[in-house]
Amino acid sequence: MSAWLTEVNWPKPNLAEFHLKLAAAAAARLADPVELVDAQRRELRRRLGEAQRALPAEPDGSTAALLLEGVALRLQADLRWLEACERVWSKVVDESEDA
Q1: What is the Cα 70 distance to its own chain's centre?
Q2: Distance CA 66, CA 7 (A)
Q3: Dihedral sign for Cα atoms in the order 68, 74, 79, 80
Q4: Cβ(47)–Cβ(79) under 8 Å?
Q5: Residue 50 gets which letter from DSSP?
Q6: Burial 2-21 (b: 16+ CB within 10 A, else e)
Q7: Which run of H or E residues covers position 18?
Q8: 10 Å Cβ neighbour count for 81?
Q9: N or C: which end of the chain has fewer CB within 10 A?
Q10: Burial class for 33, CB neighbours closer than 10 Å (0-12, 13-18, 19+)
Q11: How far apart are CA 19 and CA 33, in angstroms?
């Protein structure tokens, strides 16, 4: 179960599965969901950096540049979604600690 919780499965995330991981981690007190979000964020930032570093090596208008731009945009969107996850799960964690 621990390996499943910490698995980084981007760049094609299954958002429902990731949300399930957060819920399972919180319910069973196996891990802090906010820490799981942080781990995913670090991995996505690493991958985004790789894509951004590779992009200047490709000619403007090339298919490779277009694909790298798509990867970067997708990773940026996933990072924004993780910010939303952190906001929600931070509140959930705070409420469970107050109970």
Answers
A1: 16
A2: 28
A3: positive
A4: no
A5: H
A6: eeebeeeebeebeeeebeeb
A7: helix 15-28
A8: 16
A9: C
A10: buried
A11: 9
Nearest CA to 10 out of 65, 81, 60 is that of 81
Q: Which residue matches tokens 């919780």?
A: 5
Q: How far apart are CA 20 and CA 5, in angstroms?
A: 9
Distance CA 50, CA 34 (A): 24
Residue 17: the pLDDT is: 87
Token pair listed for 56: 């200047």
Instruction: Write out the two tokens for 54.
Output: 């590779």
Query: Which residue has tokens 């109970």?
Result: 99
1-44 residue pLDDT tens: 777 777 766 556 678 888 999 999 989 989 999 999 999 999 99
d(CA 11, CA 58): 21
